[in-house]
Write a structure and sequence with these properties.
It is a single chain. By secondary structure, this protein is mostly beta strands. The protein has 5 helices and 21 strands. The longest helix is centred in the N-terminal third of the chain and has 15 residues. The chain is elongated and about 95 Å long.
Length: about 450
Amino acid sequence: MKRGGRNAIWLVALCLVVRPTPASANPLDLYGLGARSRAMGNAGTAIADDVSAAWYNPAGLVSANGIIGDMGWMIEDPSLEIDGRDVGVESTEGLEFGFVLPAKLLGTRIAFGGAFHVPDARVVRFLVQSRDKVQFALYSNASQRLAVLLPVAVRINEWLDVGVGANVIGDNAGGVDFVIRQEGQGVSEGSLEAAQLAVAAPIAGVKVRPFEGWEIGLAYRGEISIELDTPVVIHFDPLVIPPNPIPIIEASVLDVSALTVTHFQPQQAAAAVAWRPLESILTTVQLTWRGWSSYVPPIPSTKTELTGGLADLLPTLPEFPVPDPNFHDTFEPAVGLAWKALRTSWVDSEIRLGYFFRPSPVPNQGGTTNLVDNPVHGVSGGVGFEIHTLEEVLRAPPRIDLSGGAQLLEDRRTQKDDPADPIGDYRSGGSVVGFSISASVVY
């Protein structure tokens, strides 16, 4: 087993090392959808009535007063630090677009919709890091995946709307199979099989209008993740020393499996109340529960099995199960305010403000793992414009929305249980600054 065998082994080693590991959450979970709701602290469960309702509460789609087309762009730029050093988490930026198609079916008002978040750089990304590397658990890969939302809503009566939908992400399947042959006995060869699949989680929502000027929104989003399971099988032909045909090592098989759960989004439920005390003022309060206790860390669970002649010569390789992260569920409050500050014959403008607090589900990482997360204070603001000059052509004034905000991470100190831990104690903190813009028309 000379050059051909050695090259094959190096290729196998590369496949085993380059395993997709840390990736959690998703861009919508961290940063919301649409400039209007972002400006109001992502408190969209009771107020979203446009394309963004596909994420916040699909029941809101049925309030659309015509066919809506929406196009926008967003960027969120993290500056996350460990012991004062920026760890280089990439920014999230990409296109956001969607549509709402209202209709009547048997006299009942319904609406179909679609919302899409498409990253500028790549459709999906998986990083390669060791399990003991210090990493921001919820930010590491959150930005790097395509998001597809497909909702439908129906108006039950004048005070009740309901909606359901699907949150769709890509999955994969396949594996690697190698045959390594001794030089002179044939050419080492291998094959790689891969298939792109899709998995979906449910989204459901209800909107209730109990009194004039009041709306109550309830929404549920199911748990979803990507499971990367790409087994590697290596076949070793018998090793012989010519001219003796009797092998000194019998044929062997090395079977390596490593299952990694990535882009985890917990199941979550949100309840919100919106109140319009004056025609020009809208307020909303929201509380979101996130089921982080079922979190699976983005660490490969590996198992290696060696059979045949090499098994008699080499020791049994240990298994590496995924450690229990012991994350806990969280409750996230958010508030939003909108004020129609300007009304003219050709344009209306609305000023928006928002705030949310996101507690961390991550306990102190005193053991061997280093999944970092900090409590977050989110502040935001923005402005929306309704342009009246095209009302003769369109069913409603076209709208342009802008938002900006920051997520401010509280400083947090991680203390290790073992004074000899190779990583040691560390501090984490930082911020994420964002901007988004969207334009919508109603036909």
